[in-house]
């Protein structure tokens, strides 16, 4: 028997396999750092699901897992046990970033540079290195980007404002900040914005906060709408119209080594990330005019 849920799932499948509905690829590769030093805001979840959604629209996407926990690597089905060639070796100059790139099990156009537990000590090792703030920028050179032929690079940061996050900010042109629709949503955000301004002033003049993504939205609460209004008032058109709902499916997917688009393509979470990814693609002109 045909049901609305079945219809929604079929519509999702049509989007996930566009059949000619791919979005136009950007003229130049867009590098976005996904940052928020506050934990539990949906940073890694958003990184991997936006990457999967962009790949579904015909983009070639590289995810760089810069969090020693390796959760982005897990969600993309990429091996990240100790000894695996990873972002750690690329940062300290032992290998080329190209040697650490792995293909996700979920799409041929979804690539990942995994993080291993070795990355946990990188903050200390980087302190004494020459050009310690720009090691990732050097590893992610124009030549490497061209050889990978990627349209988007999404960098998933650890929940801190240490040297790894600074490297991510120096390597990118854009920052995407996930903000949860809950109490204290904007707590600590001022510190992140100050750090971004410092990096912009001294290390990367191209850097801009291009995108704000509201996550964990629960339409049953007044609080969610209050936070949404406050964030939109503060950040204007940089806030995506799409909000990511609080979703069991989104939470369950990483446990199966999958993004929510692979785990349950008909779910509200999957559809929301597809909508958010479309907005990011369509926002390119606004972003470029803001530089």
UniProtKB/TrEMBL annotation:
Pfam families: AAA_31. It comes from the Bacteria. CDD domains: ParAB_family (cd02042). This is ParA family protein. Residues 30-209 form the AAA domain. It comes from Pseudonocardia eucalypti. Transmembrane segments: none annotated. The lineage of its organism: Bacteria, Bacillati, Actinomycetota, Actinomycetes, Pseudonocardiales. InterPro entries: AAA_dom, DNA_Partitioning_ATPase, P-loop_NTPase.
């Amino acid at each position: 028997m045909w049901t609305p849920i079945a219809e929604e799932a079929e519509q999702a499948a049509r989007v996930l396999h566009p059949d000619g509905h791919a979005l136009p690829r950007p003229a130049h590769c867009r590098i976005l750092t996904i940052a928020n030093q506050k934990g539990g805001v949906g940073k890694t979840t958003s990184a991997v699901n936006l990457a999967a959604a962009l790949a579904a629209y015909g983009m070639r996407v590289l995810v760089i897992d810069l969090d020693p926990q390796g959760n982005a690597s897990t969600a993309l089905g990429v091996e990240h046990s100790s000894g695996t060639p990873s972002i750690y070796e690329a940062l300290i100059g032992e290998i080329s970033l190209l040697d650490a790139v792995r293909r996700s099990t979920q799409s041929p156009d979804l690539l990942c540079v995994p993080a291993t537990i070795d990355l946990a000590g990188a903050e200390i090792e980087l302190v004494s290195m020459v050009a310690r703030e720009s090691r990732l920028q050097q590893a992610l050179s124009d030549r490497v980007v061209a050889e990978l032929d990627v349209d988007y690079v999404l960098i998933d940061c650890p929940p801190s404002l240490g040297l790894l996050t600074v490297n991510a900010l120096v390597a990118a042109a854009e920052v995407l900040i996930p903000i949860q629709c809950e109490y204290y949503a904007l707590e600590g955000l001022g510190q992140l914005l100050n750090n971004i301004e410092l990096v912009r002033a001294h290390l990367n003049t191209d850097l801009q906060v291009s995108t704000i993504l509201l996550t964990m939205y629960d339409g049953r609460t007044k609080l969610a709408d209050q936070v949404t209004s406050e964030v939109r008032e503060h950040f204007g058109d940089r806030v995506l119209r799409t909000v990511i709902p609080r979703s069991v499916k989104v939470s369950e997917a990483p446990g199966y080594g999958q993004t929510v688009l692979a785990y349950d393509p008909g779910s509200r979470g999957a559809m929301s990330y597809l909508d958010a990814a479309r907005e990011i693609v369509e926002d390119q002109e606004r972003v470029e005019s803001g530089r």
